[in-house]
Specification:
Two copies of one chain form a homodimer.
Chain A lengths: L5 H8 L3 H8 L7 H14 L5 H8 L4 E6 L5 H16 L3 E6 L4 H13 L4 E4 L9 H8 L4 E4 L9 E5 L1 H14 L5 E5 L5 H16 L9 E3 L6 H14 L5 E4 L2 H13 L9 E3 L16 E3 L2 H20 L8 E4 L2 E3 L5
Parallel strand pairs in A: 1-2, 1-3, 3-4, 4-5, 5-11, 6-7, 6-8, 8-9
Antiparallel strand pairs in A: 10-12
Helix pairs in contact in A: 1-2, 2-3, 5-12, 8-9, 10-11
The first copy, chain A, binds a DNA duplex (16 and 16 nucleotides) through helix 2 and helix 4.
Chain lengths: ~350, ~350
DNA sequence: TTGTAAGCGTTATCAT
DNA sequence: ATGATAACGCTTACAA
């Protein structure tokens, strides 16, 4: 049991709590001698400040909250790693919650974090999230908030993303340059901004290259955008549109589902149908064929988001004005075997 | 800003803080009438108790800490999900830290959690961890501790694992039953108990089936037990022991590395060499060929570990004696295409 | 250089 | 049924 308190040290040394506190915190108005005795005894008794008391006194928890849609997810796992790394540097701890792509959970979890009085909050929105009152609640509590990856453009806070539209545009342009002409798109659901932007990039690339946009070549995945979606839609499209020569998938997991199906029915990739993913999950590099994809720097997104959040926390502490940033991190095309 | 305090409510209502507190906490010795007024005003002012003060007063944080070796990891991600689910049920929050398979970090993070005064700690040990003083520190702080997956048998606390030895034994027996005779094993490093147990299971299965154990067929992966390890060791063994007809890998990631190499040099799986993994990562079901593996129930391990931890936290609160449990969850063989 | 005392926002004990 | 008061352990203005 380690429950040494300042009081105990003080009484053992026959001095006041204040002097003990000051000594331990390196204040200058304590004699070297007493300071030393205090520090020695503290060390000997294994003193650590009671964080509950410190929190109450300083009104900060040295903790931030993180809400992500799904944990079992290559991209988000990497984001978390980046966040944890930045937090550790600053002696901050991170409470992690999973919204499970549900708006309802997201709301509830925000309340939990606010009640816990975390010093800041990091969120990647659920695919369901189309209203933003709960985010504004965070702001009205004066708690720094940084949105990343799946953001709400309308909420007034810092944001860290990639340029989904441009990334998709480049991806499809690349496909066109490789000679593919009938390019289908398996897009995400209608809500998260990313799906929309990736779709828009796809469409624009076609148009800029004089390929007429054909909405019947766009298949919509449901909210999960998972393996099954890719598999099932691949089955459908092969039947409905045998003429396609490439599919641009909204995310790797969907692309992997596509590959799975094409492999099963022995449609050659990329000779008959090319497949291009998005996100560069580790998995995509060990598939057969290896999946070409867009690299989305999860780790850096995490680091940057956290670092902005901590900056804002500090600015707030000093009553300095904070200027919200919108950062876009770069992406790149990873060419492998599927295109 | 939501900083309503009991004091404010009290003064607005012209009653004492005590009465306000009691009303809000449903004590019986408050008149229905005042209780109602208090509750109404509290709701109107959006009162939420200051958790810092509550923590200080009650000496509990309603928070647990979790230390895992790696975050970008299918199995551990599933474990975390299980833990978060149990925590949420009980209105507990979870602080997550990553040891990165380093003993040094593990130690430091334990200190962080202890200083934070979390109500309990959940750990899966790093592959480096061969001494346990830091774990005993947790116990000496009287903080409930549950070890899962990678545990230390010698530490006196509850543990949740699978039976690695039996799982490996069954796995190799299955291989033998399928007719494989020269079975190699890519084992993990010498430290984590799992590696040892899986190796022991492998060895025992051979012996029980009258296949002489040949130590030259056992290749040791380094601490990371990753894709590269599988790939490189596969390259080596194909060269050094062309006679083998199966490889039992300590974990799926290693198995996937093996498959990758065998595919590249066009060694037929499983006709020439069969590959059996361990853990049943999602990835393994979308490989070509699909990987046969041992299902390790990550989600359940997480749930069970958390639930035991919360039980111990409650018992401790009631000053009831706690009896440490060692739970072993079942595994099963997932037969796919690689064996 | 050292110490007193107030206060952070609760909860709990004991009077009234 | 209600309230005064102390306490949790710390920080910090203000005295001495």
């Amino acid at each position: 049991m380690n429950n040494t308190t300042l009081k105990q040290i003080a009484s053992q040394l026959g001095i006041s709590i204040t002097t003990v506190s000051k000594s331990l915190k390196g204040y200058s108005d304590v004699s070297e001698k007493t300071k030393k005795t205090v520090i020695d005894l503290a060390k000997q008794l294994n003193y650590t400040p009671n964080s509950f008391a410190v929190n109450l006194r300083t009104k900060e928890s040295k903790t931030i909250g993180l809400i992500i849609p799904t944990l079992v997810h290559d991209f988000f796992s990497n984001v978390i790693q980046g966040i944890l790394e930045e937090a550790e540097k600053r002696d901050y701890l991170v409470i992690i919650l999973q919204s499970n792509e549900k708006l309802e959970f997201e709301k509830k979890q925000i309340d939990l974090l606010l009640n816990k009085r975390v010093d800041g909050i990091l969120i990647s929105l659920s695919n369901e999230t189309g209203e933003f009152e709960h985010l504004k609640t965070i702001l009205s509590h004066n708690t720094p908030l940084v949105l990343f990856d799946k953001i709400a453009k309308l909420v007034n806070c810092s944001k860290v993303t990639i340029n989904d539209r441009k990334a998709a545009y480049d991806a499809v342009s690349y496909l066109i340059k490789k000679g593919y002409k009938k390019i289908a798109h398996f897009r995400g659901a209608y809500l998260p901004q990313n799906s929309i932007d990736r779709f828009l990039g796809y469409k624009k690339a076609l148009e800029d290259n004089n390929i007429p946009y054909d909405s019947s070549l766009v298949y919509v995945c449901d909210n999960n955008m998972d393996f099954e979606n890719g598999y099932e839609n691949a089955k459908k499209i092969v039947n409905e549109h045998p003429e396609i020569d490439a599919i641009f998938a909204v995310t790797d997991l969907v692309a992997i589902g596509i590959i799975k199906y094409l492999n099963e029915v022995e449609i050659a990739i990329p000779q008959q149908i090319a497949v291009l993913g998005f996100s560069n999950w580790f998995m995509s590099s060990v598939m057969s064929p290896k999946l070409s994809t867009i690299d989305q720097p999860g780790f850096e997104i995490g680091k940057k988001s956290a670092s902005i959040l901590f900056d804002e926390i500090n600015l707030k502490k000093n009553n300095s004005p904070v200027i919200f940033q919108s950062i876009e991190l770069g992406t790149s095309i990873i060419e492998r075997q599927s295109t």
